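Input/output pair, single chain:
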Amino acid sequence: MSRVVPFVQADVFTTRPFTGNPAGAILDADGLAEADMRALAVELRLPGLAFVTRPTGGDAEFRLRYLTPAREVTYSGHTTLGAVHTLLEAGRIKPGTTRFETGAGTVAVTVETTGDATMMWLAPPLAPLRAPSAPLEPLLAALGLARGDLGDWAAPAVTGDTDLLLPIAGLGPLRALRPDLPTLAAVAEAQGLRGTCVVSRETVEPSSGTHCRVFIPHFGVPEDIVTGSVHSPIGLWLAEAGALRLAEGRAAFTGEQGDTVGRPGRLRVEVEGAGGTAPRVRVGGSAVTVLSGSLRLP
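Output:
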């Protein structure tokens, strides 16, 4: 007998349907075979699909596994918030802090409500940034960039999730990027990188702090719409570069992404302890359900 699997899709880092980054969540995924999980991810073709199961141990309340259409990843910020949003609407969790077991360690998510507004805050483990260990020129060529196109407000860096952070001189050059995706995929894979994140300090909305584009073609995501996991290290990156305006050791900014693919999303990034101590960063956003139903496995 075939199995029917309930499924919810939410748009994340937005309050308006059909903007932000789509994420799927399958609750009660215990017992699903690996082949079925991969088949579901391929069928749905979402940038991120979360499978929610019981934790294997420790103090987490749930375990999350994340699949893209091409492979499993250890952590996905927007997919985590999509799962939290689904659990919240299903009455499985309440506002407050919930801990999740992931392939990247335990991730705490805090849900805050003010009136009718709900904000979900990610506080993932934050690894130190490191300088790129491979030459930048092959990646820059695949992006259609030269060294002179890079901004001088921060140095290129690699995150704990192996995303390369590249500063760019402005919003115009960022919008004009037309990467050679097969070449970029081959170079990134050879260099052990997950994604290539190009960041501008010039923004669409004057009150924002960054605007970025993220390319992950070898994971089946040619251009990611809104990347939650990259914005925590972006906060750390800006703090270390002295590019944040601090007030009592704290700073906050809005990150923009998704505009170039017609699905604008906005994230709130808060940095605490910058300027002398190891910063702590949390990333917040909202979500809205756009689809719910069930899938029938063959």
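The mean pLDDT is 93. The CA atoms of residues 143 and 179 lie 4 Å apart.
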